[in-house]
């Protein structure tokens, strides 16, 4: 078809849903429109003009001296020299390798040189320098031209990398160096697939070009790898080497520092692709360790080639070597050829597999860096929220409940802002965790991500256990075990140690472990610990009771809390050695006196308890406390003693009255809870519209000042320094040391204490001997119900004073009108208000049907 004729182009297009006519003009049947052929005819705007062909004259043959301009020497080697030349015809700069004129065997040298040229030309691979031309100079020496590679050798690059890294390689630098090594392996693998082995692989024969190209150089010692000829298509390049016997029997060619053992021993019949693999293994060793495996000493190399004794690369490297790479290197350098990779292709496959993981690791590390970058911001937001909460609390605590809402509005706004920031921090934490999980999706074994998550779940575990949140602790522990890589082994083991000394020494110590039975924590005998002192006795985490017995002394109950990885050493703040538990001599305790030994305990930390203090680990010196609250019978003795001493007015003021929440002066004589006989003495009687007061019931309807006067009277009567409990002393006596929610454990069962719902009939106080299960680890009764106990200290939002973690007595002044602390459960309140960490308060002159008191005194030191 001529250019002046119309040109026709046809193309077939699928046209879904089209109803175009076919060549006959008929429409296709329905449903057949999805395979319609359109014929598109395109006509050029104007015919193209005829152009005569341009004659091109073929260049006349030129000699090498005429065609190539010599630009100088690049380098010299055993088989000749390499010169930079410019091709005058094509106008490009090349490298020309010229046969040496000083060969010992000209025929063999010529054959080898020609074989190198033919072989290199045959091996067409991006990692092998292409050969462009070959020939002979006027003096008969052979030459061939090839691409000139401008750059540095692999050895030079490694020296620079190690120098830049201060003698070691960063993970990124290591990955890049191994990537270069992979490209070397791929080039050699191609040669192996063509039936050729290099025989002189070393860093000096690998060039890194100016634009990142990696080229395996100097194929002058290459020869057939006989085992490879059996492969289909493998003989092509090897044919180039068949023309002459290039290696004489027993001849050793190559560089000893990189030779395989069989090559160094001149065992030509055993040479094969695995011999090149050994040399590649040495190159990989130098990449990983920054030094030759045998220190570059020929004698050491020769000895190692004969006997083995390779030092593992991970032991010589100045940085961490990935285990996979160390294994690859060791296999490549195995003494026996059959123990190595069979060829460079198999070696490259393992290196490539590691690099794929390394690249994923780099991406994963970048994601971890993002997570680390947002963590300080999350912490800053939380800190700001805490500050706002504290500011709001201080503002609102300074106001009275009946103050106008307008005065509280600013505090509410601060709380709202804190809440907003806490939500923002929570969302930030979610993003942080999502990033770390995304990093693990990229690299499932990424240590950095696992450690960050492990640290997070370790904190969650500790917080959950401190809060006695069993489900939260179980979840956190499972996640910690999933992510921990050894850093939290001690925490996960959960073991601790007990150190304990007594005064006197030599007390027999029996260990009981608290175990939950039917929702109660029950001490079950574990083992005998032997005589005190005890030093570092290993115990699994948990709550324990140590019973101490010594001749001539009362038995002492000493609860112990073994927390994860934390010793129980009994060292008082400021001390250096375990504080001795003083055992009380027989007769120092009355029938209902209980000894609470000195030591640490967990205070507060119950979010479900009313006005609970934050969780703290505090030290409380030893105290002696009465088992029960003061009873009606005991209080009657006090009132009648006042009457007998002529202090009737004081007795009337201290007498229990029905004046709920009112001062004594506001109550009439008909409000007395006790009757008076004709002799003026007080006695129990039937109070109209109320239950009968019983002698063993705890006294109630007495104000704080009356309780303080009773304590002073009783101290004078007995000659012992009896007083009211500080509220933190009360908490330790009621809870023990492990932070339990109730005296008997963590389960709130109403029938175990006198509270609303604990029994049928009319709610009210019960004798102190009822509800024997309402008992603490020290034997304290009635802490969860019946009546609360007035405490010696004033009520403060932040709690009573401590000093360096030591509980202080901190008694309130009698004339101070501020609220007084009260602790414990009461018959008139719901079970949730009977939790041992709950805090209550009343004015010092107020009376309540659910508040009484009990006595304590400091134990002798």
From TrEMBL:
PANTHER family registered for this protein in UniProt: MITOGEN-ACTIVATED PROTEIN KINASE KINASE KINASE 20-RELATED (PTHR43289), SERINE_THREONINE-PROTEIN KINASE NEKL-3 (PTHR43289:SF6)
Gene3D superfamilies: paralog of FGE (formylglycine-generating enzyme), Phosphorylase Kinase, domain 1, Transferase(Phosphotransferase) domain 1
Name of the protein in its database record: Protein kinase domain-containing protein
Biased composition (Pro residues): 46-58
CDD domains: STKc_PknB_like (cd14014)
Organism: Sorangium cellulosum So0157-2
Segments for region (Disordered): 1-58
Residues annotated as domain Protein kinase: 68-355
